[in-house]
Amino acid sequence: KCGVVAVIGRPNVGKSTLMNALVGEHLSITSSKPQTTRHRVLGVMTEEVSALPTQFIFVDTPGFQTKHSSALNKTMNRAVLTALGDVNVILWVIEQDKLTDADLKVLALCPKGVPVIAVINKLDQLDNKNLVLPFIEKVSGQANFAAIVPVSAQSKKNLDGLKQAVAEHL
Ligand code: GDP
Ligand code: MG
């Protein structure tokens, strides 16, 4: 299995940390997969997921990594929409127990028809584990997600669960 995975989310939710944790030592420098110029490749993960050889190509979407996402004009939004329409899976990254306007603005840019996985990061910061389920419930009301996966990028918690969820939607 092979697919292109976009990682999106407001600044500081842990996108880079998550990418590093997922790609880690599995980073491969060369890939036979043709790349579109619409995306910046952040890393490539090649390993077995659920006993199947699997490759994820993680990409950034131009115009997306801005501190001023609220000021994105219509043209830029359209460009992001076009670029995101080109990927197999979108990882929409948020922080545990936080659902902000900025998060929802990013989510709103996801085109219809591409599976979006909500990644709830920084699970290690949650003292009361009883809060995970109600928060997942709250998140699930925001869109028709392909999956909602709590992780800790920093503590490398549930990364296998996330890889499986991505692989299921390639
Ligand atoms: P980005 O702006 O979305 O790329 O976020 P970064 O990956 O740069 O992370 C922002 C901050 O959150 C950094 O200080 C990270 O160390 C921290 N961080 C990222 N993932 C986790 C996590 O799972 N748990 C905790 N406690 N901190 C995290
Ligand atoms: Mg970053």
TrEMBL record:
Q: Where located? A: Cytoplasm; Cell membrane
Positions of the UniProt region annotated as G3: 60-63
Q: Does the keyword Cell membrane apply?
A: yes
Record's bilayer topology term: Peripheral membrane protein
In this chain the Era-type G domain maps to 1-170
From the UniProt entry, list the residue stretches annotated as the region G5: 151-153
Task: Note down the stretches annotated as region G1.
Answer: 9-16
Q: Where is this region: G2?
A: 35-39
Name where it mostly resides: cytoplasm
Q: Which UniProt keywords apply?
A: Cell membrane, Cytoplasm, GTP-binding, Membrane, Nucleotide-binding, Ribosome biogenesis, RNA-binding, rRNA-binding
Annotated binding of GTP, by residue: 9-16, 60-64, 121-124
The answer to whether keyword Nucleotide-binding applies is: yes
Ranges for region G4: 121-124
Superkingdom, natural source: Bacteria
Which family is it part of? Belongs to the TRAFAC class TrmE-Era-EngA-EngB-Septin-like GTPase superfamily. Era GTPase family.
Question: Subunit details for this protein?
Answer: Monomer.
Protein task = An essential GTPase that binds both GDP and GTP, with rapid nucleotide exchange. Plays a role in 16S rRNA processing and 30S ribosomal subunit biogenesis and possibly also in cell cycle regulation and energy metabolism.
In Swiss-Prot or TrEMBL terms, this protein is called GTPase Era
* Provenance organism: Limnobacter litoralis
Taxonomic lineage of this organism?
A: Bacteria, Pseudomonadati, Pseudomonadota, Betaproteobacteria, Burkholderiales
